[in-house]
Design brief:
Elements (H helix, E strand, L loop, with lengths): L3 E16 L8 E19 L4 E3 L3 H15 L5 E7 L9 H16 L6 H7 L8 H8 L2 E4 L11 E5 L6 E6 L8 H10 L5 H21 L2 H19 L11 H13 L2 E5 L6 E5 L2 H19 L7 E5 L7 E5 L2
Parallel strand pairs: 3-4
Antiparallel strand pairs: 1-2, 1-11, 2-4, 2-5, 5-6, 7-9, 7-10, 8-9
Helix pairs in contact: 1-2, 6-7, 8-9
Amino acid sequence: MGLSVKATTSARLHLGFLDLNGGMGRRFGSIGLAIDQPLTSLTIERAPIMRVEGPERERVAAHLAALRDHFGLKSHYGVRIDTVIPAHVGLGSGTQLALAVAAALRGLEDLPRDFAADALFLQRGLRSGIGTALFSTGGFVVDGGHSAGKTMPPILCRLRFPEEWRIILVLDDTMQGMHGAREREAFAGLSRFPADAAAEICRRVLMQALPALVDRDLAQFGEAVGRIQSILGNYFAPAQGGTRYTSPAVAGAMEDLERLGAKGIGQSSWGPAGFAFVASDDEAQRLVGIFRKERAARENTSPKNPIMLICKPRNSAAKIEKIGA
């Protein structure tokens, strides 16, 4: 058995931007959290010819070819992709996939790890830096956004997320969020973000969300995230058909979860993925059970959509492991 390297990483939530106004010289800035599912997992080894098998093989093949040339490597490689985070649903799939390929290739060829350089080379993190940060550290992170001459946002804070808390992830597998040219057009078409709204978001993060994580105060953390999501949701609504949520199915589920007691509800990035926080696994199971029972009673059926996953925080880096000789 020859040497192979397996890279496994998981989804991230984009909980909001700090400053879309940019009046102080920096723009964007992001709040993010690594969660334990869905997963991206792939394995790379040397091979007689180049081959890539599994979901997202075209994107992986393109990344692999670019990295091979960039590093000046002469070997051929085989890649098996076992599972991927769904693309364009607000869970950071593109960055996690690109960094998994780069980290696995570096591990196979004994090249030093450099997640930031790989992200820049593969054109990830051009707006938000949390995907790269969460690949390398896990946990809860805040980045400082972009400024002139700087291409990778600096990470300002990284905290462990309370292990006992749970995240209810709500997915709509019938649609995707905005991406690519449509996303760029959406940003270009929005009005200038109010400076006072950016100031409130920054205050909510620094003086409410971060202290609440340290104190393990779910109510305060949820209030901060909920308010940030409300400000940003209203701002982005014109680009999302006039609502805070991309998916009507997710929107309805989020309203129900909030009514049932979940905290900090919102949409990750352009969605359609929604999220809500609860204090324990038992509470998450209880709320999802009530939601399903109520929904079935209203619709006289047992609908599969929206999909609900009960997730744990991931407080560690992506796993890169060598296998075989």
